[in-house]
Amino acid sequence: MDMLPMLILAAIAYVLYYGGIRLQVRAHLSGRTLLDLLGYASMLSAGTALGIYGTLTLAAQLAPHAGVGLLSVASTVASIAIGEFLYARSFRLSLQLLAPLRSEKGKQ
Q: Which ranges does the record mark as transmembrane (predicted)?
């Protein structure tokens, strides 16, 4: 297996995920839902990149004669699941990160 496509994909997924986290934290700080929506789209894009590449790589090794419909459904489900997992994980972590700031703000 060639390493260059995997490294390029990892870099793209990292940039999209990192950008999504930044947008999500800014949305929590400023209360703007547009930033949260953009962060969600960025993380879903990272999940799509990872899901499609991973599904097609595994399918080429495990089931080389699988139909196009099966591959499309499997890659779509995997992409959405990975993107939603990334969003939910970072959402929970950003709330935990910002909880002390919110409690200090409430005390003042």
A: 6-25, 37-60, 66-87
Q: Is 67 in contact with 45 (CB distance < 8 Å)?
A: no
Q: List the chain pLDDT tens, one digit each, 108 residues.
A: 578 988 999 999 999 999 999 999 999 888 899 999 999 999 999 999 999 999 988 888 888 888 888 888 999 999 999 999 999 999 998 888 888 877 777 676
Residue linked to tokens 């999940």: 47
CA-to-CA dists, residue 105 to 27, 100, 101, 108, angstroms: 17, 9, 6, 5
How many C-beta neighbours within 10 Å does residue 50 have?
21
User: What DSSP letter does each residue of 93-104 carry, written as one string?
Assistant: HHHHHHHHHHHH
| Global pTM value | 0.81
Rounded Cα–Cα distance for residues 36 and 95 (Å)? 13
Tokens of 64: 């080389």
